[in-house]
Amino acid sequence: MGEVADNTPVIIGVGQVSERIGEPSYAELSHMDLAAAALKQAFADAHARRSLPQALDTLVAVRQFEQSATRYAAPFGHADNPPWAIARRVGAHPERAIHEVVGGDRPQRLVGELAAEIAAGRSKVAALAGAEALSTVRALLARGETRDWSEHRRGEAEDRGPGLEGELGEIATEQKRKYYREPLEDRGPSYGNIVDLTAIRHGIAAPIGGYALAENVRRERLGLSLDEYRMEIGKLFAPFTHVAAANPHAAAPTVRSAEELAVLTERNRLVAEPYSRLVVSRDQVNQGAAVVLASAGEARRLGVPEERWVHIHAVSDCAEPTLLSRTDMEQSPAAVSAISTALEVAGTDWESLHAIDLYSCFALPVFNLIDAFALDRADPRGWTLTGGLPFFGGAGNNYAAHAIAEAVARCRAAPGAKALVGANGGYMSKYTAGVYSTAPADWSQSRWHSLEKIKPKFDVLDAFDGEAAGESFTIQPGKAGETATLVARAGDARVLANSADPAICAELRAKKVSGRPVRIEEGEGGVNRFWFV
Fold first, then answer.
1. DSSP element (H, E) containing 425
2. Are 361 and 389 in contact (CB under 8 A)?
3. 120 CB contacts (<8 Å, ≥6 apart)?
4. Spatial CB neighbours of 293, under 8 Å, sequence gap ≥ 6
5. Which of 6, 234, 319, 511 lies at a C-alpha separation of 20 to 30 Å from 125?
6. Taking the domains of the chain in order of start, what are their residue ranges?
7. Contact 203, 477 (CB under 8 A)
8. What b/e readout covers 298-322, taking b as 16+ CB neighbours within 10 angstroms?
9. What is the pLDDT of residue 162?
10. Is 84 helix (H, G, I), strand (E, B) or coil?
């Protein structure tokens, strides 16, 4: 391999753990138990001759859903200091402990941040670890059982918070209070890092509604009906199910055809037009993953064999404005910029990549990149290394750590080849891309690049009274019936409005919405109403 500079950051170990209810090994592990087990696996994966836990100077805990100001309460309690809860379980005493911000992009971005810290000489051995145990939580609650997963751990930690500020943070906090009293209520908002308050008021608080609005922009541009577009999603995701079926950590290891994924049935019910249940991120998982990095010099001192090293050739991240204020709701220039920059810094291109994992909480983040880079949807390399979030599982903010673990394995199995991991957060709100290989990477200049945030294009109106032009919609089922949410353009602004009229829902499904004139009227509670004119 040749001599690598001592301050070069390398991944030396990765770990994944999982458990499925009903299997012989099922142990009802908590979030912290799963995260620590994954970190222990990552330490073992390095094959070091000296103690890695004792050498660890930096540990980052990826924030679990129950501490992310989302709709998920913590009915069994939680660790108030997650990095130290994990550290104590593995016998580590890090000098620096961090509780990371919310976002599916965070594990990939943390690899860039920690690698840069190592290259600058401020760290020698660093790790990130996270987990979700929502499957166990829901199963226990369904049986009327409880557990005590609360714990207090001493130790100084940098809590970066959930990333919600101002009025949005206050709303999220109040919602959390509600769901502590009513744990794991199926209805209820889930807050990303960048959310329009008017979207929350109009029922587009969970990502599924926001992505559905954006997905329908793409569908109408392609001239497809809802059923035709569902088949397009099915064709994209059917190969993902084959990968998931072969992955021992997958939450839903079942091969499915495009038709099974696309056709609406009682089991594959509509959750938000155009999405059926089987093609959205699966949050009910018990999964943990961890990544350990070290300087090349420290890896040598610890006796980590060089064949275990995987080099970080590039990490690049970029962010978008809110969904309603961006230029085109179906597109994410931030994701395109992050990947383009990572490929350029790594000195490679799409054709030269050996393995690829694109974040797939919904179809649109994958379609966005396929469209932007003119890629083949049926590329034989595939677009997932895990099986994707609807089938492998959407392990909260930590899914990308699983993707990185799989990428490391692919790189070790094909020395010199390059792997790409793309990690998405929010409503395609922020994106981080990483390129990996066993081939050495020169870190004499940083290979982590945070790009300038994309600027907003449209103002977003909370209230509006007058005529506007339709742009997109979604329809979400509820206990009281279906609710349609419309996005419309009013000059240089966007506005949302709702309708529960079955005739309007039918018309939305039957006809093109983009450009259609609508009448919008301000309603109670900040919720606008609309009808066609």
1. strand 418-425
2. yes
3. 7
4. 9, 10, 11, 12, 111, 114, 115, 118, 125, 126, 127, 312
5. 319
6. 9-172+283-450, 459-532
7. no
8. bbebbebeeebbbbbbbbbbbbbbb
9. 82
10. helix
CA–CA dist 291, 199 (Å, integer)? 36
8 A C-beta contact, residue 58 and residue 94: yes
Q: Say if CB 529 and CB 464 are below 8 A apart.
A: no
Per-residue b or e along 357-395, where b marks 16 or more CB atoms closer than 10 Å to that residue's CB: bbbbbbbbbbbbbbbbeebeeeeeebbbbbbbbbbbbbb
CB distance 455 to 325 below 8 Å: no
Question: What pLDDT is recorded for position 167?
Answer: 43
Q: Six-digit token pair at 419?
A: 């792997």
Distance CA 215, CA 407 (A): 28
- Distance in angstroms (rounded) separating the CA atoms of residues 190 and 152: 26
Orientation of helix 333-346 relative to helix 363-372, angle to 10°: 60
Fold for the domain defined by 459-532: OB fold (Dihydrolipoamide Acetyltransferase, E2P) (2.40.50)
**Contact 200/432 with Cβ under 8 angstroms?**
no
Superfamily of chain region 9-172+283-450: Thiolase/Chalcone synthase (3.40.47.10)
CB-count exposure of residue 350 (10 Å: 0-12, 13-18, 19+): middle
Q: What CA dihedral angle connects 381, 383, 385 and 389, to 10 degrees?
A: -160
The continuous run of DSSP H or E covering 316 comes out as strand 310-319
- Cα–Cα distances in angstroms (integers) from residue 141 to residues 1, 29, 31, 146, 179, in the given order: 53, 15, 16, 7, 14
- Please report, to the nearest 10 degrees, the dihedral formed by the alpha carbons of residues 516, 519, 520, 524 taken in order: -140
Residue type for position 164: L
The per-type count for the chain, helices as H runs and strands as E runs, is 15, 19
What is the block-wise mean pLDDT of the chain (533 residues), using blocks of 10 residues?
A: 88 98 95 98 98 98 86 85 98 97 96 98 98 96 96 93 57 37 30 70 92 98 98 98 98 98 97 98 97 98 98 97 95 98 98 98 98 97 98 97 98 98 96 98 97 96 96 96 97 97 97 97 93 95
* 440 Rama sector, left if φ>0, alpha if ψ -120 to 50, beta otherwise: beta
Residue 312 is inside which H or E element, if any?
Answer: strand 310-319
pLDDT at 138: 94
Question: Three-state secondary structure along 119-174?
Answer: HCCCCCEEEEEEEEEHHHHHHHHHCCCCCCCCECCCCCCEECCCCCCHHHHHHHHH
The dihedral region occupied by 214, where left means phi > 0, alpha psi between -120 and 50, and beta the remainder, is alpha
